[in-house]
Known about the structure:
Blueprint: H1 10-17, H2 21-29, H3 36-48, H4 54-61, E1 67-74, H5 77-81, H6 86-100, E2 103-110, H7 123-126, E3 132-136, H8 141-149, E4 155-158, E5 165-168, H9 170-184, E6 189-193, H10 199-214, E7 224-226, H11 232-246, E8 255-258, H12 261-273, E9 283-287, H13 290-293, E10 301-304, H14 307-322, E11 331-334, E12 337-339
Parallel strand pairs: 1-2, 1-3, 3-4, 4-5, 5-11, 6-7, 6-8, 8-9, 9-10
Antiparallel strand pairs: 10-12
Helix pairs in contact: 1-2, 1-3, 2-3, 6-14, 9-10, 11-12
Amino acid sequence: MSRKSSNVTLKDIAAQAGVSHTAVSAALHGTGRISDEKREHILSVAKKMSYRPRLAAQMLRSNRTGHLGMIVCGVNLTDLMDSGFHGPIVSSFIQACEERDIRYHIEFAKEAVNPDDDFIPPAYFSGGMVDGALVVGYCDQPFAHWLEHENTRPWVSVGESAAYFVKDNSEQNVYQVAQHLVALGHRRIAFLHGDVSFDSNEEGLHGFERACLDFPMDTKSQWVHYIPMMPRRDGMHKTAEWARTCLAESDRPTAVICKGMGVARAVVSVAQQLQLDVPHQLSVIGFGTQAEAERSYPCMAHIQPDYPKIVHQALYILEQRLAGRDVANSSSLVAANMVWQDTVAPPQD
């Protein structure tokens, strides 16, 4: 007789999948390092065995709703979902909840454009229709104050620092990209970043500054450039203006690291207009998903955050908070994947 689904343990899944108990825990909770292929195999076995994760079982046994939330923060939802961060995080959350048999709600917390606008907290979260939530992105001051001082439900930040958070290790990622470029022979390296109010941009800038100190790089101050937060088309124009000036110099950069895929594409476009060979005369690195990187030729070398792992780890912390357990690690920095495609090569001049 088969065991009841509520009694299926990690050891049962490990035996059925032919893997270790540690590997099963890593796949289900987003902890440790395992391959995507092994994770998918373990999750498939767990689903066939009707395994119900502790979080779902505990919520159903209690007076809780059994629902989790995700709150996406920002000004324009369409732009956010088309970005190289929010969209993949949302899809990873949906997949993780489906795999764990957890019901979920996703809502948008719109940042106030006018300071006089009244703050309205997210309806599902504030109304008790979810037991806890992942909060994605930068919270403006009214929402941050409400979360910290008026809200009573557990939450975990994704992408920004908070009491409990999981985010991409932007500082180390940019540092390692610069290290790789130096190993290829690049010395004149530029860095284009966005608003340092956001952790990812500020920490990426710190990583680049640390690389300038640690490696033999010859970087001018004007090569470390801030692209303001603005509509995408305007941002591309600002990037192109910078590129036309700096790439026309005789001692121009031989490599540009960009904290954004659109920014990287604008740099490549201007380089081609200036008849620079990408990647041999100019290497360019973007930030975002592989799908974004491969939308046009040449396919962009890029930093790709490990979105599934970020979400799995955030859910694991939320699980501990909902269960009333002490959280050993209230924060987590997740290493990204470096994808070296068509736009990076050793410099030829």
